[in-house]
Input
Amino acid sequence: MHAPARPKRVARGTLVALVRPGRVVAVRSAPGGPVVARLSSRTEFGSPRTFAVTRANPGLRVITTELPNGRRGWVDGKGALRLSRTTLALDVDLSTRVLRVRAGKRVLRAMRVGIGAPGTSTPTGRFAITDKLRGSAYSSVYGCCILALSGHQTNLPPGWTGGDRVAIHGGSTAGAVSTGCLHADEADLRYLMRTIPLGAQIEIHL
Output
């Protein structure tokens, strides 16, 4: 008699691709397409370069801040990348101003957040966590911690000099108060810093 076939294991969570130290990866506009960026193993803020992978084969389709919101790049994973998985993801409902930390379908924590003010609304879409930084290294207005996202604010106010990257950091959670970033309380920020890995995905929606 033949032993019954073992059921195939279903991979859980989403893929994360870390650029190995000292390596450089080419980001292409499509599989085999033109190179749009060549990226080292460190981000502009000094964090390990980590991509959220949205599709595998052929190559890896990744979320990267080097491309505009909503566009994806393609990288070849041979040798330069180390792959892992995470079951953690973030979900932000702008209509209720609630950020939820999810492990699969389970909600681990929900927190109130401040969001972009009218005219500088928080961009919607799927992004990724690219950096986890000490707020004091940049300005006391950021609070204890900064989680930088891959997304860009495309509606900056006139004269703004703070860059266009969207992030989660300290600040008022009283309403639509920011230039596009998400504000969270310090206890919640410290939880996110401890819990959420680089390359985790975040969905921001109305």
